[in-house]
Write a structure and sequence with these properties.
Elements (H helix, E strand, L loop, with lengths): L10 H4 L10 H8 L7 E2 L11 H10 L12 H11 L6 E4 L2 H12 L5 E5 L5 H8 L3 E5 L8 H7 L4 E7 L11 H10 L5 E5 L14 H7 L3 E6 L12 E5 L1 H9 L8 H10 L3 H24 L3 E3 L5 E5 L3 H10 L2 E2 L1 E3 L5 E8 L3 H16 L1
Helix pairs in contact: 3-11, 4-11, 5-6, 5-10, 12-14, 13-14
The protein binds pyridoxal-5'-phosphate.
Pyridoxal-5'-phosphate binds next to helix 5.
């Protein structure tokens, strides 16, 4: 072939920079010849407690049926979500992780000649999903590391069909107040879909949770996304969902792969939703761990961005270098330069008390090296 087959892809696809995930434990173990059990990974905001007992039992129970295709409608999970949140099953879209759901939004509502608005320091999937559809991304400078909603409203132009907002935001952990967020919804033209990505919702104390699900009735252009990857501990199984107006959900379901959520994930998520005690314990452990990491960072004379998630971005200076030094000590954290535009920060997932301790010791040693 005289032409590079890559050139056959539309230019907006070719210009996509690949998403950089947190480094897997197995990869670092291979590279450094370390034992996997001696490596601490605090790079992808997973739940250090694993999964709850009901969830484990449900996965085991579902193993016998894995030769069959999953329920493409996710009936049981939708019923469980519908009861929990008081929304019709027709208003729910299930995804292979909430990442999949975000892709479905882009698929259904974006394309060449259209645009999406997002904030500086936002979750990297928003610009990626936007660009992959040939749509134009409009990045709005952050204010105090968080979303500047006034500037985002002003950035909406005639071609804008989607606004992406993570609340709390990853990687900054910043939280928009409910009244500010609802004020934004009232100002946005009806044509514009507003995605409020609440991947870390379960880590918020009740008084900080916005009643986004109730807002759906007043705002048919609102899409709320949640996931089982974080507080529920199911990152490896991939399951998340969107709550939206029935006609928004309908159009998203049309571009969905028929069996996008696997049967183990469906069974696990349905059970996990009832593991309230596990989520409550994870919430409490996260608060404690957050304090531990903040105190450790303070003792090292470091600043951080106060976070409402299960992670925290700490300013360490030459973050890529510190990241590499920490890898050699068997601790994986996440540098947030590149698309995240925080070249002096490292994002650390709150781990168990012992993992946080390992992290702080490795950080102290890496700063001195
Ligand atoms: C982790 C995360 C998600 C969830 O991803 P899944 O695909 O559900 O695992 C979504 N949004 C943000 C902002 C996240 O940090």
């Amino acid at each position: 072939m005289v032409i590079d087959p890559c050139e056959l892809s539309p230019s907006y696809v070719r210009s996509i920079a690949p998403y950089q995930p947190g480094k897997p434990i197995s990869e670092l173990a291979r590279e450094l010849g370390l034992k996997e059990q001696n490596i601490v990974k605090l790079a992808s905001n997973e739940n250090p407690a694993g999964i709850g007992p009901r969830t484990r039992a449900a996965i085991e129970g579902a193993l016998g049926e894995i030769a069959r295709y999953p329920d493409g409608n996710g009936h049981d999970l939708k019923i469980a979500l519908s009861r929990r949140y008081g929304v019709e099953p027709a208003c729910i879209v299930l995804g292979n992780g909430s990442n999949d759901v975000l892709e479905l939004v882009a698929h259904a509502f974006l394309g060449p000649g259209r645009a999406a608005v997002y904030a500086q320091h936002c979750f990297a999937v928003y610009p990626l999903a936007t660009q992959a559809r040939g749509a134009r991304g409009i990045a709005v400078p952050a204010k105090d590391y968080g979303h500047d909603l006034d500037a985002m409203a002003a950035a909406i132009d005639d071609e804008t069909y989607v606004v992406w907002i993570a609340n709390p935001n990853n990687p900054t952990g910043t939280l928009l107040r409910a009244d500010a967020l609802e004020g934004f919804l009232r100002r946005v033209p009806e044509r514009v879909l507003v995605v409020i990505d609440e991947a870390y919702n379960e880590y918020l104390p009740p008084e900080l949770k916005a009643e986004t699900v109730k807002w759906l009735r007043r705002h048919p252009n609102l899409i709320v996304t949640r996931t089982f990857s974080k507080a529920y501990g199911l990152a490896g199984l991939r399951v998340g969902y969107a709550l939206a107006h029935a006609s928004v959900a309908d159009i998203m379901n049309r571009v969905r792969q028929p069996f996008n959520v696997n049967s183990l994930a469906l069974a696990a998520a349905t059970a996990a939703l009832d593991d309230m005690e596990f989520v409550a314990r994870s919430f409490a452990a996260n608060l404690q761990g957050m304090r531990q990491v903040e105190e450790g960072a303070r003792a090292l004379g470091l600043d951080w961005i106060p976070s409402c998630g299960n992670f925290i971005s700490v300013r360490v200076g030459k973050a890529n270098e510190i990241f590499r030094r920490m890898l050699r000590r068997g601790v994986i954290v996440r540098p947030v330069g590149g698309p995240y535009q925080l070249p002096e920060h490292l994002r650390i997932t709150i781990g168990t008390a012992a993992e946080n301790e390992r992290f702080l010791a490795a950080l102290a040693a890496s700063l001195k090296e």
